[in-house]
Amino acid sequence: MDLPQSLNTPALAGTADLGPVILALPKGRILKEVGPVLARAGIVPAADCLNEGSRRLRFETSDPRLDVVRVRSFDVATFVAHGAAQIGVCGADVLMEFDYPEIYAPLDLGIGGCRISVAAPVGFAEAEDSSRWSRITVASKYPGIAQRHYAARGIQAEVVHLNGAMELAPALGLSSVIVDLVDTGSTLRANGLVETEVIAHVTSRLIVNRTALKTRPEEIGGWIERFRSALAA
After folding, report:
1. If you write DSSP's letter for every residue of 110-141 in order, what string do you get?
2. Which residue among 8, 15, 88, 190 sits deepest, i.e. has the most Cβ atoms within 10 Å of its Cβ?
3. Residue 221 forms beta bridges with which residues?
């Protein structure tokens, strides 16, 4: 797909009535790490945008053609897929879980690095031969990823869907193992778990609504190029 090379991206005639492009950013760790990328792309959001103590959810930027919304990390992909935001920053884990066909992910931003892993209690991991499993109970906020991972090995996964405190599940009898994001592994170790498999390494991506890219090609393509240039800087 050919995208415009200019970083000066005047709005197309006839698109002004569409309003500013909306950039969806996730709360949490990625919000902190994306700040320098935005700066290199020439995007200066309102002062309270990167401050999670602010109760505002939508923010103006230094460019009147761009607004920022701040949402839960799992919701960024949903906002972009449904066209509520035209572009966003989203972890590859979320893209793997939901696999929205409406989303195009042109750039790996190289931030938010971590991994999706299987973890189990130390004794369980040492005693069990996973090659002999026919079914397994898994606690995870990634039911799709967990089921696909085990299905590829011929194992039926019964997934207990949790949104947090995954590390408690094996000790309290909810599951045998967990599938979760892992960074340093310190939370696993503090709760008697050990990482047994890495399913995928994860970084954050710039994502784009495919319809918006077709209907507003110069605007959206221009923002992609600004982020691309920011990564090269």
Report:
1. --S-EEEEEEEEHHHHHH--GGG-SEEEEEES
2. 88
3. none
The whole-number pLDDT of residue 125 equals 65
Confidence category of residue 228, pLDDT binned at 50, 70, 90: very high
The per-residue pLDDT for range 86-118, each reduced to its tens digit, is 999 999 999 999 999 999 999 999 999 999 999
Q: How far is CA 99 from CA 94, 144, 145, in A?
A: 8, 10, 10
CATH superfamily of 16-112+203-232: Periplasmic binding protein-like II (3.40.190.10)
CB 43 within 8 A of CB 90: no
| Alpha carbon distance 37, 48 (integer Å) | 17
First to last CA, the chain: 23
The domain spans of the chain are 16-112+203-232, 114-202
**Spatial separation of the C-alpha atoms in residues 160 and 142, rounded to whole Å:** 10
pLDDT tens digits, one per residue of 37-90: 999 999 999 999 988 888 999 999 999 999 999 999 999 999 999 999 999 999
- For the chain, what is the mean pLDDT? 90
131: tokens are: 């090659």
Q: Going by C-beta distance under 8 Å and a sequence separation of 6 or more, which residues neighbour residue 121?
A: 170, 171, 192, 193, 194
Helices (H) and strands (E) in the chain, counts: 8, 11
Taking the CA atoms of 59, 60, 62 and 63 in sequence, report the sign of the dihedral they define.
Answer: positive
